[in-house]
Amino acid sequence: MSDDDKSFVEKLEEHSELVTGNAASPDEIAKNFALYGLSKRVDIIKDFRKSLDGEVDSDAMSLRKYAGDVAQLKRLETIHANLRKVKR
To answer: Which long-range contacts (CB under 8 A, 24 or more apart) does 15-23 make?
Structure first.
């Protein structure tokens, strides 16, 4: 699978696997995201949104992957918003 075919979450999981030896689950990605500073969280959200801007294939696997990515993005945005409310 080329890098262009990988979703943002798959790239994060792959990066985690390179660093730690284990692929990160969506829960672990969210936990780590909460530890980042404001500017890094904003950059991650911008990159994530940009990665979702491309066309989505209509096959079931692509739609499931896209739906999972959108759900993860919403989760990260909620975490970011909550951290902003507590001035972090």
So the answer is: none
